[in-house]
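@channel anyone free to eyeball this complex?
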Amino acid sequence: MSRYSIVSLARNALNYHKGWEEAWRSPEPQPEYDVVIIGAGGHGLATAYYLAKEQGVTNVAVLEKGWLGGGNTGRNTTIIRSNYLQPESIALYELARSLYETLSQELNFNIMFSPRGLLNLCLTEHEVRVFRRIVEANRIAGLDVRFLDAAQVKQKVPIINNSRAARYPLLGALYQPRGGTARHDAVAWGYARAADALGVDIIQNCAVTGIERRRDAVSAVETVKGKIKTKKVAVVAAGHTSVVMDMAGVRMPIESVALQAFVSEPVKPMLDVVVMAGAVHGYVSQSDKGELVIGGGADAYNNYSQRGSPPALEHTAAALLELFPCFSRMRMLRQWGGIVDMSPDRSPIMSETDVKGLYVNCGWGTGGFKAIPGSGFVFADTIANERPHPIAEPFGINRFAAGRIVDESTAAAVAH
Amino acid sequence: MLLLICPVCGAEGDETDFQYGGEAHIARPASSTPEAVSEADQYAYLHVRANPKGLHHEQWLCARGCGKWFNATRDTVTMEFKAFYKMGEKPPRTPRTRSAKP
Ligand SMILES: Cc1cc2nc3c(=O)[nH]c(=O)nc-3n(C[C@H](O)[C@H](O)[C@H](O)COP(=O)(O)OP(=O)(O)OC[C@H]3O[C@@H](n4cnc5c(N)ncnc54)[C@H](O)[C@@H]3O)c2cc1C
Ligand SMILES: [Zn+2]
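replying in thread with the prediction:
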C-alpha cells in the first residue's frame, strides 16, 4: 500500500493523477481461510482490520454479496455519539468514539471525523428527567456530557423554534461536545484499504448461500464463487442476519425493518452542530457540501426491500419543520432506505453461538455507524481468542434467555 | 405504501389506517406452573422471530375501522399482501418461499 500524503498528492498531480494505484485488490477466493467474515459493511471490515492488525490473524476473507460499504454503512446519516445510559453501552460506544478521533491517522485515510458537537433536544418533561440522568451516568464514566437549558440551546442553534406556543416546547438538551459525524463511505474504504494491505482478501460480488456444519462446528461456507473451507465464520450481515444465520440453523432475535434518510439542496452554513429530537422522531446535521442530512424513525413492519414508505418520510419532515420553520421552502434532493437489524433491547449482539466457530455481530439497528471501530476491535479479539472481550461480554446472545438485557430502548428513547 | 383490507369489516386503507403487530401464530408456552416453562422456550416466545425474506404471516390492527386484530400474509421483498384472514384462522396455503436471493 503506498501511503497517502501531501507528497504523494503532489507527485500524482504532476503526473495528471494517472499514477494512483487501486486502493485494494480484487482477489479470487482461496480454498480455505482461518476466518471468513460474511458482510463487508463497516463492522465486517473493521473486524477484519483488527484481526490482522491487533490479533495477527491475516488469513482472513471478507465476503460481500454486493459492493463493500453498499449496505447500511453507505446509507446512514453518520451521527457519532456515546451518551448512552447503561454502563455497558457507554463503555462500547465511547471506545468507538475515541477510536474515531484518531482513525484518519490510524488508517492513513481521511474519514473526515467532525466532532462538531451533538444536541439531544428535550421537548418533554420526561426527556428532561431522562437526559439529566444520562448526564450523571455519563459523568460517572468520565464523558464530557452536559445539560443545556433552552436559552443555551438557542444560542448554539439560532434557527431553532423556541416559541412557547410550539406543540413541543424546547426545554433544554443533552450536549456532547465531542459527538459529531464522519464520512461513512470513507470509513468503509479506509478499513478496506488498510485490511487489504495487511493481507485480508476482500471478495465482492460473492454472496454466501450456505454455511456448512460438521456436527456442532462450522466447516465451510458455500458461495456463488464456490465452497470455501474455514473453522471460523463471523456473520456481520446487518439486515440479512436472520437469513444468513438460518443457513447455519440458528434462529435469531432480530427483525429487519426499513430506515430512511433524505438530504436537501445545498445551502449556506446554517447549522454547525448535530441536532436530534427523539420525541418527534427527527434529526438533522449539515454536510460539508451544505446539504441538510435528515433522518427519523424506522418503518414499523418487517421489510427487505431497501425502500421505505412515504408516511415515515412525511412524519420526519413534519417533525423537522416544527423545529426549524425556516426549512419549509427547501427542496429535498434525494431519499433512500436501508434495512436495519432490530434487536429486542435495541442493543447490539456481539457473540459466540451454540455452533462452534460461528460468531455473530448484529442488532446495531438504527445506530451502528458510530460503533464501527469499537465493535470491530472487540469482536476481532473475541474471534481470535475464542472468548468474549470484556466489553463485548454483556452483549452476548444469551443475555435474552438470562434476562440480562441492556435496555437502551426505554433508556435513551432516541434512535441513532 | 402498503394497501390493506380488513377481513373483519372490509375497510380498505394504507398503513396509516392500520397498526402493525408483528409476527403471527407465536404460541405462548403453555403451563399452569410458569416456572416449568424452560428459559429456552420463554426466550423463543418473547424474542426469536422468523423474520423471513419472503412470505411473512403477521398481525395488523384495524385501527381506524372496526378495531379488531387480524392476520395477513405479506411478501417482505415486494410488499405485496397475499392474504388477509381472521384471528384464530390458519394461514392460507402459500408456496414456501423461504427465500428470494440471500
Ligand atoms: C437511513 C439510515 C440512517 C442511519 N443513521 C445512523 C446514524 O446517524 N448513526 C449511526 O451510528 N448509525 C446509523 N444507522 C445505522 C448504521 O448504518 C448501521 O448500524 C451500520 O452501518 C451497520 O453496519 P454493518 O457493517 O453491520 O452493516 P452493513 O453496512 O449493512 O453491512 C452488511 C453487509 O452484509 C452483506 N451481506 C448480506 N447478506 C450477505 C450474504 N448472504 N453474503 C455476503 N454478504 C452479505 C450486505 O450486502 C452488506 O454489505 C443508520 C442506518 C440507516 C439505514
Ligand atoms: Zn376492520
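from a first look: Chain A touches chain B through 29 residues (CB under 8 Å).
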